[in-house]
């Protein structure tokens, strides 16, 4: 009776047809502006617009837009390392799990194949005349001496680098540098880890918008003022973005709610199957938080293939902020090649003190370059990644819910209010257009 009375009141309203458009329009507009907000979170990767010096809004370099995640890649990646990756273990532990002894053998074999050419390159660069005049038989003795000494030198060098990896590589800085130099990588990481949550936010927003649209329709019935259309559209836009983001991460800890279940879902038609009523529990938890086991697989794969890789660790070690310390450590091993009687007699006496000192620096530079070639080998990096994948996956699964949410939460938290306010502004504009295009013509 009450429903019939309300419906009769609606039908008799002079703007009944215009009012009926409020729920579907609100649902559609909400769906569109949430899609737009999510896109603006990640794209464009690079700033698009007009650069203006000292532009004061949103940390942008001018009038235009750059995705929040790529724009703040350094800060967001720093938060992820501090809040999550640092809790998974130390760089020393990960490097040890890569089995550096096997790495040393691989590097030795690769360098050994080109060792003669490497020695020629070093000597021709430092003293072309001297090296050109040395008899080939003497050169062969130098080559042989280097080949014999190389395995032991590389084994002790890699062992030493492994022992000092924490001193030579700042894991936080390594990952931040990687993210800042490849901002698309960070965007892809968030999309792989959180694609289901992003889709959830997008699609649930339409349902939330529809519910708000029905509420707004009855508000207009009680308060038939046209200003309510854009005003409440702005409120719904604001609330929709906030609710959708909130539902992804909250509650952080699972809460179990008892209810009476009358049916179960099945895969085929009619999609439900009746059963005897019984009390069961519903697990209420943020959508992302529920997927910890699944996300652990995805995130661990990203970490071991793109972030904490052998190539990245060694790049940071050889060329990063602590490269000078790495060079000093390498000297103690590589200079052993110069201590053999053949090399010492041939080079030190012929070159002189100054040239011999420059030769030492050249040996370090060329050795670093030669060592990095096999370390960039995809097969080697893939094999090392497989060594630590399980370690990362299991430890991500073991994170507490508060720690786990920080894999995705920083992307939304960084400019969450911007996205929410954007929803309100978009809602207001859509409500105003709705008023102009639908309500005003209906009055005439």
UniProtKB/TrEMBL annotation:
The chain crosses the membrane at residues 16-38, 200-223, 229-249, 419-440. It comes from the Bacteria. Keywords: Membrane, Transmembrane, Transmembrane helix. This is DUF445 domain-containing protein. It comes from Psychrobacter urativorans.
């Amino acid at each position: 009776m009450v429903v019939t009375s309300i419906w009769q009141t609606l039908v008799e309203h002079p703007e009944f047809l215009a009012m009926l458009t409020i729920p579907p329009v609100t649902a559609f507009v909400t769906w569109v502006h949430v899609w737009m907000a999510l896109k603006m979170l990640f794209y464009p990767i690079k700033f698009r617009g007009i650069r203006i010096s000292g532009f004061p809004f949103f940390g942008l370099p001018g009038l235009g837009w750059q995705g929040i995640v790529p724009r703040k890649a350094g800060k967001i990646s720093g938060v992820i390392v501090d809040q999550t990756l640092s809790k998974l273990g130390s760089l020393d532990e990960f490097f040890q799990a890569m089995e550096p002894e096997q790495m040393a053998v691989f590097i030795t074999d690769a360098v050994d194949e080109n060792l003669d050419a490497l020695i020629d390159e070093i000597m021709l660069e430092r003293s072309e005349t001297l090296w050109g005049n040395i008899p080939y038989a003497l050169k062969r003795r130098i080559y042989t001496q280097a080949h014999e000494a190389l395995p032991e030198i590389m084994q002790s060098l890699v062992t030493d680098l492994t022992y000092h990896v924490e001193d030579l590589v700042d894991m936080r800085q390594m990952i931040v540098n990687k993210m800042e130099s490849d901002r698309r990588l960070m965007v892809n990481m968030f999309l792989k880890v959180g694609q289901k949550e992003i889709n959830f936010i997008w699609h649930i927003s339409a349902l939330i918008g529809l519910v708000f649209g029905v509420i707004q329709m009855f508000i207009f019935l009680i308060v038939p003022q046209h200003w309510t259309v854009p005003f409440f559209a702005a409120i719904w836009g604001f609330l929709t973005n906030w609710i959708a983001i909130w539902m992804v991460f909250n509650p952080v800890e699972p809460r179990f709610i008892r209810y009476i279940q009358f049916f179960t879902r099945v895969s085929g038609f009619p999609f439900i199957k009746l059963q005897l009523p019984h009390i069961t529990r519903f697990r209420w938890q943020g959508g992302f938080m529920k997927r910890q086991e699944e996300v652990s697989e995805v995130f661990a794969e990203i970490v071991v293939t793109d972030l904490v890789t052998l190539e990245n660790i060694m790049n940071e070690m050889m060329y990063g902020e602590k490269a000078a310390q790495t060079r000093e450590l390498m000297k103690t091993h590589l200079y052993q090649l110069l201590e053999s009687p053949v090399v010492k007699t041939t080079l030190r006496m012929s070159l002189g003190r100054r040239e011999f000192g420059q030769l030492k620096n050249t040996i370090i530079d060329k050795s670093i370059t030669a060592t990095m070639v096999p370390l960039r080998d995809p097969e080697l990096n893939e094999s090392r990644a497989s060594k630590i994948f399980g370690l990362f996956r299991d430890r991500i699964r073991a994170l507490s819910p508060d720690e786990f949410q920080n894999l995705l939460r920083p992307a939304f938290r960084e400019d969450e209010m911007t996205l929410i306010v954007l929803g309100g502004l978009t809602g207001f504009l859509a409500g105003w257009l709705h008023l102009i295009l639908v309500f005003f013509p209906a009055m005439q």
